[in-house]
Amino acid sequence: FPSSSTMHVKQYKKYLEHLPSHAPYLLIGGGTASFAAARSIRARDPGAKVLIVTDEPDLPYMRPPLSKELWFSDDPSVTETLRFKQWNGKERSIYFQPSSFYINPEELDSVENGGVAVLTGKKVVHMDVRGNKVKLDDDTEISYDKCLIATGGVPRNLQVIERAGEEVMRRTTLFRKIEDFRSLDKVSRNVKSITIIGGGFLGSELACALGRRSTESDLEVIQMFPEKGNMGKVLPEYLSNWTTEKVKKEGVKIISEALVKSVTCKDDKLEIHLKDGRLVKTDHIVTAVGLEPNVDLANSGGLEVDSDFGGYRVNAELQARSNIWVAGDAACFYDIRLGRRRVEHHDHAVVSGRLAGENMTGASKPYWHQSMFWSDLGPDVGYEAIGIVDSSLPTVGVFAKATAKDTPKAATEESGTGIRSESETEDTATSAVASVTPAPVVENKDDYGKGVIFYLRDKVVVGIILWNVFNRMPVARKIIKDGEEHADLNEVAKLFNIHED
């Protein structure tokens, strides 16, 4: 809708009349956490009336395929269809549900059995917690009984790029949304060189995706980051280095230990000057240096923002105030197993959104079910992780020789789930038994075909990476839930059957 100034006043009033002035369940944000909460609310309260308000133009969709599967599609119209082949060969859309699943916002008041309505292109700008109502950017007010904040975050940029002026900013992509996928896809077909800044999940996945494309066209793909290797903040150094070699095989030029000093535009090229004097020339930059949780409503809502982790501070039930919950990237929550955390991953959005939805309908459940995350870098490297995986923690890795079955593709073909979100399947593991004889840390020197990496804090396993080991997440989840000291992690590794062919 146009703004009130351009619209005839009568029409505008009519438009306001159509919007629901009250939503029993109001969900702010239209991402994965919000959709998971809506589904969970409707499952427990079948007549529930749920209103999702999102500032994006799209209905709720999943983000992972934007940096993963969509790039590997053979369909030239993929940027329009946004459909991708899952690893198992079946096709699906990135939208969770087609538009027919939702009801119109103006029908929310009157619809008998309730439903989920989505108000797109609208931003909640003010929150009146005592009055149980919010204000949108067009001054509409909507009151609520229960409210979820699932506002996600905005991609961070490097200050040196923000300060570099308009031309540099115009040639820089901050990657987060459907429109970013569409524009980067277009850029990749029209320029000679793209540089990705950032060595984490998003940066490494995009580097591999574009690298694959570079072999077919004349595109140079560069990835630079301050760490020594890809995923250096997550993986132990030997594994990070090994991963970097795999990323290079995908056609990516890696520039490691790179700190950007300045970026300038010269002779129609971007020049990236590094602090050690190196100079990189490129046509386009993609910055993938993390996410700034969106806490715009903290001030008006009087909500606490966590000074260490960022995000809205909530308790173990994801509650910020008596009828306000927070889920997804923007929630800094208390994990009764691992302490205070904030997690930026698809599966965490699913798990926390679902839990918030249950608690909004009276479940009073704490967060303990660990979400997982996964990343596939090229066809040979796929891993799933759970808990706190941080390369500054002590780690123990146990590896075995990989077979053809130990690839992401083979694993998802077998499991039949397309997008790997383990919480969709909810298996539970029963027993985890470890023996008490100590053994040395095993590092199989250069071939990390498949294995298990344990991350320790005070001798207790707080995180696990399953490296080309698939469909074993319930075992990992149980080890973390039990929170015991293990004398011999080689024995624990046997629970994952990594030595079986």
UniProtKB/TrEMBL annotation:
Q: State the species of origin.
A: Astatotilapia calliptera
Compartments, record wording? Cytoplasm, Perinuclear region; Mitochondrion inner membrane; Mitochondrion intermembrane space; Nucleus
Q: Which GO terms describe its cellular component?
A: mitochondrial inner membrane; mitochondrial intermembrane space; nucleus; perinuclear region of cytoplasm
GO MF term list = DNA binding; FAD binding; NAD(P)H oxidase H2O2-forming activity; protein dimerization activity
The record's principal subcellular location, in a coarse class, is cytoplasm
Q: Which Pfam families match?
A: AIF_C (PF14721), Pyr_redox_2 (PF07992)
Q: What is the protein's given name? A: Apoptosis-inducing factor 1, mitochondrial
Report the record's Gene Ontology biological process terms: apoptotic process; mitochondrial respiratory chain complex assembly; positive regulation of programmed cell death
Where is the segment annotated Disordered?
A: 407-432
Tell me which family the UniProt entry assigns to this protein.
Belongs to the FAD-dependent oxidoreductase family.
- Give every FAD/NAD(P)-binding domain span: 26-352
The catalytic activity, as recorded, is:
A + NADH + H(+) = AH2 + NAD(+)
